[in-house]
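DM from R.C. (forwarded with permission)

"hey, sorry to bug you on a friday — could you get me a structure for this? deadline for the figure draft is monday and I only need the backbone to look sensible"
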Amino acid sequence: MLRSGALLALVLVSGAAQARQAEGERAAAREIVTRWQAAIVNVRVVLKMRMSVGGREMQSMDESVETVGTIIDPGGLTVLSLGSLNPGAMMNRMMGSGGSAQDRVEIGSEPTDVRLRLADGRELPARIVLRDEDLDLAFLRPTVPPGKPLVAIDLADEGRPQMLDPVVVLSRLGRVGGWTPAASLQTIGAIIERPRTFYVIESGSAGGMGTPAFTASGKVVGLLTMRSIHAGRPGMFSMAGGTEGLGLLPVILPAADVRDIALQAPEK
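My reply, with the result:
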């Protein structure tokens, strides 16, 4: 058996090794932020919100929403969560579809103005060129050329993490945060394999949808989106089970899948 002094020395050596590993992971994460932070942009959307009861429109208003997108092409093609552009669908899901047709409340939302705020502060008007409701993706293109190639994440340089592997999730704060780049170290908590591959991180959304995740070596894992299934009419205590009680789950959609869909986005 090890004597107490030797055991203490072993514990100290092990602790020092773990500290060096953790610091190495943080240093690698900072390098990823430095390299790709300009590809994470803020998106400002003006939404026309409409509320109807029993099929009759009761209220209409304009709402300004700020979200985050990821540039995936030097020309400015940007991908983000479709839910950010269509919050009405999320509200309808949370309220459910029960009740009589005369009393049913429905909320609709349609973007009327979209702008990209680049890392250098420039704003570019943009338009939606492609939507994928099943995978919660929307693709935007600037209507005004950016003038020079933009920093864009290469979705072809894909990484495939395993269970409990660390990943780096990039984001960007909004107006209150001074548009500052943000990042977090996360862990792959689950890997869904059917009907298609999704990665699930332990802390859920980790700061918002439409942001990319990277392996520790700097390869892009994919994009954070919201997976949804029809879970039936929400019960009184559905939220007790988190978003899954509503048929919603934040996931990372693999980079290859995002890339395949992006190839369908029209050039003009």
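R.C.: lifesaver. The radius of gyration is 21 Å.
me: no worries. Residues 4-36 form the longest helix (33 residues).
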